[in-house]
Amino acid sequence: MTDRILDTFMELAAIESVSLEESGVAGYVMDAARACGFEPYMDKAGDVLGGNAGNIYIKIPALQIEAPPIMFCAHMDTVTPVKGVEPVIKGERVVSAAKTILGADCKAGVAAIIELMKMSSQGEIEHGPLELVLTVAEEKQLQGVRHLERKRIESRYAFVLDAEGPVGKIVNASPTQDNLLFVFKGKSAHSGVEPEKGINAIFGASWAISLMHLGRIDAETTANIGVISGGRAVNIVPDMVTVEGEVRSLDMGKLEKQRKSMVKAALEAEAAVGVGVEVKVERAYEGFQIDSQDALVQLGIEGGKAMGLKMEVQSSGGGSDANFLNTIGIKSVVLSIGAREPHTINESVKVKDLSKLARLCAEIANSAGRMRIS
Ligand SMILES: [Zn+2]
Questions:
Q1: Cis peptide leading into 106, omega within 30 of 0?
Q2: I need a labelling partner for 327 at 20 to 30 A (CA). Which of 202, 249, 251, 257 fits?
Q3: How far is the CA of 28 from the centre of ligand 1 (A)?
Q4: What's the pLDDT at 371?
Q5: Name one GO molecular function term (predicted).
């Protein structure tokens, strides 16, 4: 199995697939499904979002085992930079040769799902009914999963393959995230001739940011200012600056408190410096918390146990398709996929983790028959 899934992964990783340009990977998945004798379906998410591929659904009938359907999900898009990506094997890991990400997030997950299809079609595993869902535009605020055709999915439980770190982790809690957009409005003037007639929007924004508490706020809460843009020339007092940030927390009360404190800082700049401030708050995604005793988590633990892997259950500071799936009645946790340092050019995945993840999915699918999860 190691060679087979390694080949799959190397081929997948070599296909560039930034958000909304997933057609290469989507075609690869559809071909793999058909070669295994399954009928993949692609929805219209690509048309709606302006991308070149939609979400893919593959149903695999039960093999020997009676159980409720279980869904496995991974996203097909990656972040940048990925132009010219060239996956290479270096020792026990796959890395990217050039200065690009590798895209193991989430192609390690996509490869595991393809391997699951191959194992099933070859009769190498026994399992209940499986639903495989490959999404687009996950890295763009989970846009793809939001356009799923809900009625196509029967499963009430899903494992999303998307957490970083060695295989063996179940993420059962993830924060809610709010995005904040601040627009600081000043007044332009010639900086050398009559600066006193201007109101410096950059100064106002800096004032506000300096009052904000950012970074790790507490064990459950983080905050960041990530983008700042404005100003036109060194000799013009800048009249507009936009500042973008985010707040995440596992606790709604703490989320609100932090968000309010950042808005308050902006309003204090308004009073102190005389800039105008507009604030826009948007919920990026809802968080979730699933009890570690829940049948879904226990199923993940059981799958690990069947292959001698002790699963660790923990919360994460990141969002994934699971955040949205949990809001539409598909109870979901996230499995770690072996990707290390995702979203950086140092990203890598252990060759062993690739097959381990596929094996874990197979053992979970197999364990579903033994457990009462309906
Ligand atoms: Zn991911």
A1: yes
A2: 257
A3: 19
A4: 76
A5: metallopeptidase activity
Interval between CA 55 and ligand 1 midpoint (Å) = 15
Beta-ladder partners of 279: 182
State the catalytic residues.
Answer: 77, 138
How close is the Cα of 20 to the center of ligand 1, in Å? 14
Q: Dihedral sign, CA of 323, 129, 122, 303? A: positive
User: pLDDT by residue (tens digit) across 74-133?
Assistant: 999 999 999 999 999 999 999 999 899 999 999 999 999 999 999 999 999 999 999 999
Rounded to the nearest 10 degrees, the angle between the axes of helix 2-13 and helix 104-121 is 140
Please give the Cα distance from 65 to 62 (Å, whole number): 6
CATH no. for 176-285: 3.30.70.360
CA of 213 to the centre of ligand 1 (A): 28
pLDDT digits (tens, 9 = 90+) for 321-368: 999 999 999 999 999 999 999 999 999 999 999 999 999 999 999 998
The pairing of strands 130-135 and 70-75 is parallel
CA 79 to ligand 1 center in whole angstroms: 9
| pLDDT computed for residue 1 by the predictor | 63
What does the domain layout of the chain look like in residue ranges?
2-174+287-367, 176-285
First to last CA, the chain: 31
- Residue 190, annotated ligand binder? no
pLDDT beneath 70, residues of the chain: 1, 372-374
Which residues sit opposite 349 in a β-bridge? 94, 339
353 backbone dihedrals φ, ψ, rounded to 5°? -65, -30
Q: Cα–Cα distance between 7 and 193 in angstroms, integer? A: 66
Q: What is the pLDDT of residue 372?
A: 66
Q: How far is the CA of 201 from the centre of ligand 1 (A)?
A: 36
Residue 300 is encoded by which pair of tokens? 């993940």
Residue 13 has what pLDDT? 98
The per-residue pLDDT for 374 is: 60
What architecture is domain 2-174+287-367? Answer: 3-Layer(aba) Sandwich (3.40)
Indicate the DSSP class of residue 150: G
Angstrom distances, CA of residue 152 to CA of 131, 136, 147, 322 = 10, 17, 12, 17
CA distance 107 to 342: 11
329 to each of 28, 100, 151, 156, how far by Cα in Å? 29, 37, 11, 7
